[in-house]
């Protein structure tokens, strides 16, 4: 099955929630863990133990593993392996973006069969031109993996680039979405090239002329729960594309602490909230 088909099935079965695995130093401290590789490993694998097989996807943020060097990357490899073992889709949030052979090397690291860092999907940045992502697109589609392309992000600086318009009047965000739509054309139930669209971007999609429905792919929406996005915000941001949304929640679940039962309860509540908000 393609990534898009696997994700659609997982969302139907388990709800539209992705749990972010973001081991900030502050969260490690809240859990009573040291800010070192042992603390990182305990944190990440406890989250996997709690939510693996219970949510549609998990999203480890690569930077928080990379900051611990090679041993931290080894923990990320363990998270990816735990995802496969538990039947949970893993989106590696690395936001890679480069040109030529360098982008090809990133694709090889995160999208090649047999690579220990290759989850089910990868976040990528198109701001060297969408065509710079071709090696990642080719690798993802060849291995039935997916991509989530940064499109409309919730940071205030994002609008400087994403809302900018070319001479023909098309915004950068609309162009990114249109390119993804071409790659997903004809896919059923949805394609494997998704977008990252912040849950708190308000009416940015309509303002920039970005057709999220036409993308025919998954829309990864950080910012649900602790960051403030509820039903009204999601309706404003996504409109009739709500059924394509995979809501991402990190702190809203992780602040439950290191007790597995408490983490599961927090994840179950987040699933209910996301499902209700995205009806």
SSE inventory with pairings:
Layout: H1 3-14, E1 17-21, H2 25-30, H3 37-51, E2 57-60, H4 62-66, H5 69-86, E3 89-96, H6 100-111, E4 121-124, H7 134-142, E5 146-152, H8 158-162, H9 172-184, E6 193-197, H10 204-208, E7 219-222, H11 231-238, E8 245-249, H12 251-254, H13 260-277
Beta-strand share of residues = 15-25%
Instruction: Provide the structure class.
Output: alpha/beta
- Main CATH class: Alpha Beta
Q: Major sheet, described briefly?
A: 8 strands, parallel, barrel
Structural overview:
This protein is α/β, with parallel strands linked by helices and 279 residues long. It has one domain: Aldolase class I (TIM Barrel, Alpha-Beta Barrel). Helices cover 47% and strands 15% of the residues. It has 13 helices and eight strands. The protein has helices at residues 3-14, 25-30, 37-51, 62-66, 69-86, 100-111, 134-142, 158-162, 172-184, 204-208, 231-238, 251-254, 260-277; strands at residues 17-21, 57-60, 89-96, 121-124, 146-152, 193-197, 219-222, 245-249. It has an eight-stranded parallel β-barrel with strand order 1-2-3-4-5-6-7-8, surrounded by seven helices. Helix 10 links the parallel strand 6 and strand 7 (219-222). Helix 3 runs parallel beside helix 5 (69-86), helix 3 crosses helix 13 (260-277) and helix 6 runs parallel beside helix 7. The chain is globular and about 55 Å long. The two termini are 26 Å apart. The mean pLDDT is 96.
